[in-house]
Amino acid sequence: MSYEKLQQIVDESKSIVFFGGAGVSTESGIPDFRSVDGLYHQKYDWPPEEILSHTFFYRHTKDFYRFYRDKMLALDASPNQAHLKLAQWEREGKLLGIVTQNIDGLHSAAGNKKVFELHGSVHRNYCTECGKSFSPEYIRDSHEDIPRCDTCGGLIKPDVVLYEEGLDSDTLSGAIHVIRQADMMIVAGTSLTVYPAAGLLQYFRGRNLVLINRDVTPMDSNADLVIHDKVGQVLGSLR
Ligand code: ZN
Hints:
Shape: elongated
Order of helices and strands: HEHHHHEHEEEHEHEHEEH
Bound molecules: zinc ion
Distance between the termini: 15 Å
Helix content: 25-40%
């Protein structure tokens, strides 16, 4: 029933914006470190939120990279039904853009062009000394505990937004711009508790707000349609 309603709203909409969180990538095998069965309950000396902080990166760089290579750098993952459906909608001209909290680059891998990666991407890495760019494979395959620049020896940092760091202002304003223009907003795979997710929703002026998430979110009562299911399964069932 709710799937039919969703299809109806999608059919009526001309400019969809998609806002996604970790739950969009779990069906690609990328764990959500905030979820109960995610990384929290795995063995590390610090909680993931501490390891993925700016202070920790510079103070315990070796431990950061051990965790990062092991848990964050999921280069074998491929796009799932959710990513593929969004790519199809962009090709068809129905989708204005994607705003994502994920750093896995799977929307680009699926073929989407207009993607605002609020928290950056594991696919971009740069030398903190000379600014040279490096591929994620360079980080993965480095024989050193800490990957270093092959030109100047400087420390390489992934272009991901760590805790204590601010969001890129161009990415944020681009995200706000597409959200403002959309007639339908799909918010999926996020509990809406992470900054700036909930705040971005206030820019939406369109007709239909749809939430797709496995669990209840604080915004459920504000939405026109709420579906508590897996994101890929839901989107994959649509035309
Ligand atoms: Zn360098």
